[in-house]
Design a protein that fits this description.
About 55% of the residues lie in helices and about 0% in strands. By secondary structure, the protein is mainly alpha-helical. The protein contains 10 helices and 2 strands; from the N terminus they run αααααααβααβα. α2 packs antiparallel against α6 and α2 packs across α9. The protein has a two-stranded parallel ribbon.
Length: about 190
């Protein structure tokens, strides 16, 4: 059996697949980055497994996380989403996703891509943690506070420092695989 980060419940195939195939891997696709930012915002106050279980529902409900399509959502679309059991039906989180899609388009217009904007904030390479256990990993960092502040300045919502740090970990802007995890060992080689 592969050694994984100690936060991964080995008996949960969704968590195992998420950890093994996605979490902490550098992501450069704007759609995937928008998806992760949306899902991390939706997760606020909930267990991540709730979001993993609803991920396909989110993809269907939010047009495959195409920022241009989501930015065109109307109040009628928000009402439709409020009735969609495939996602977390929280009006503020739904409205923030629509708002954030429009902000992504503005970032793309200004910088060229969401990818270029985000990766410029970490110098183009992941920040690599040196944690031995997941209990050592902070909930937020100076970098996540800076990202949060800048995203809020740009009009993004549901992007507090803790959400931003979880997003940075998910998107591979930060690599917080712990000592002994096969993902960390593979990236260190």
């Amino acid at each position: 059996m592969k050694a994984r980060c100690d936060w991964v419940p080995e008996d949960n195939p969704l968590y195992v697949a998420y950890h093994d195939e996605e979490w902490g891997l550098p992501t450069h696709d704007d759609r995937e980055l928008f998806e992760l930012l949306t899902l991390e915002g939706a997760q606020a106050g909930l267990a991540w497994i709730t979001i993993l279980r609803k991920r396909e529902g989110y993809r269907a409900a939010f047009s495959g996380f195409d920022p241009a399509a989501v930015a065109r959502f109307t109040p009628r679309d928000v009402e439709r989403l409020m009735a969609d059991t495939g996602i977390v039906r929280n009006r503020l989180k739904i409205e923030s996703a629509v708002n954030n899609a429009a902000r992504v388009l503005e970032v793309q217009e200004e910088v060229g891509s969401l990818d270029a904007y985000l990766w410029s904030l970490v110098g183009g390479a992941p920040i690599v943690g040196t944690w031995r256990t997941s209990s050592e990993i902070p909930a937020e960092t100076a970098e996540s506070r800076a990202l949060s502040k800048d995203l809020k300045r740009r009009g993004f919502r549901f992007v507090g420092p803790t959400v931003c740090y979880a997003f940075m970990q998910a998107a591979g802007l930060v690599d917080d695989h712990v000592a002994g995890c096969f993902r960390r060992d593979a990236s260190a080689a």
